[in-house]
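hey all, quick one before standup. I had two proteins in the batch that finished overnight and I want to keep them in one place so we stop losing track of which output belongs to which input. First protein below, input sequence then C-alpha cells straight from the run.
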Amino acid sequence: MKRLFTLLVVTMMLGVASINCVKAQDQDTVAATDTTAVVDQAAAAEEVAEDAIEGTSAHQAIKQKFIEGGVGFMSAVILCLILGLAICVERILFLNLSSTNTKKLLAKIETALNEQGVEAAKEVCRNSRGPVASIFYQGLDRYDAGLDMVEKAVISYGGVQTGLLEKNLSWIALFIALAPMLGFLGTVIGMVQAFDSIKVAGDISPALVAGGISVALITTMAGLIVAMILQVFYNYFVSKIDSIVNDMEDASITLTDMLYKYNLKNK
C-alpha cells in the first residue's frame, strides 16, 4: 500500500509539473507572437515613412527642376499643358456624347416611317442625341420638297456637324507646336546666359558650362513632354472623328434609300 501511495503521489507531482511546463510554453509562444506583431508593425510603419519620404523627395525634385528651368518659360509650358488638357476633356465628353448606335437608330426610323409616316420618324430623331440624328432630322424635315432637297440638306448639315466635331482641335495642335518652341527658346536663352557667365568669369570651367547647359535643357525636356501628352489626345480625337464621320456618311446613304423606297410605296 505504501508503495502504491508513493507511486500515486509521484505521478500527481509529475502531472502538475507537466501542466506548468505547458503553460510556460504557451506564455512564451504568446509573448513571441506579440513580439513578432510589434516587429511587423514597426516594419510597416518604416515602409510607410520611406514611401512618404520618397514621395516628398520626388515632389521636391520636380519643384527644383521647375525652378532651375526658369519660372517664366516653365510656367508658359505648364500653361500650355493645362489649357490643352482642359480642351481635351471637353472634346472627350463631346465626342462620347456624339457617338450613337447608328444601326439601332436606322431601325427605329425605318419602323416609325413605315408604320406612322415621316412625322413619327422625325420624332424619333428629336429624341435621339448625336450628329447622325440631327442630320436625319434635317433630311426628313425637307421630305416634302423632294428627294433632291433631302440629299442636299443631308450633305450640307453633315458638313456643319463635321465642323462641330473638329471644333477646338486647332487649339490642341497650337499647344502641341507651341510647347516645344517655348522649351527651345528657354534653352537658347539659357545657353546665352551660360556663355555670358563664362565671359564674366574669364575662364571656361567644365562645371560652369555643364551646369548652364543642363539647366537650359530642362525647358526643352518639359516642352517635349507636354507636346507628347497632347499629341496622344490629338490622334485619338482625329481617329474618333473619322469614325463618326464615316458612320454619318453611311447612315445618310441608307436614309436616302429608305426615303426613296417610302416614296415609291406611297405613290
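OK second protein, same deal, sequence then C-alpha cells:
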Amino acid sequence: MGRKLRGSYTVEAAMVMGILLFALSHGILWAYGVKDRVTASMMLEEAVEWVRYDEEASIAGEASEGMEVLGLRIQVRENGDRVDGTVTGRRRTGEISMGRFCPEEFLRRVSVIEEAVGDGDTLPEGDQT
C-alpha cells in the first residue's frame, strides 16, 4: 500500500518555489541594471576621452546607436582646461570631469625622471612626485 502524505507539504513547496522564482527574477533584473550603469559610464568615459585628447574622429554615430538602445543622453562640455561630461537616462545620472591632456607636460616629466634615474638607479623615496 502507498503512503499517504499530507497536502500541506505540496502547498509549502509551492510557496517556497514562488519565493525562489521571485528572488531569482529580481536578481536577474538587478544584474541587467548594473550592466546598463556600467555601459553608460563606459560610453561617457570614452566620449570625454575623445574630447580630452582632441581626436579628429567623432564617436557621435557609434554613441548615438548605443544610447538609443539604452535610452541615455550624453553631454560633453569644455570648461577651459577641464572637460566635463554627464549621462542621464532611466532615473540615473552620472558625471565625470577630467583635465585636458597636455603632451608637453608629460614629456617634461618623463625627461626629468630619466635624468634623475640614470643608468639603473632608482629615485629616492621623497623625489617621486
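Flagging for whoever picks this up: The first strand starts at residue 73 and ends at 79. The radius of gyration is 27 Å.
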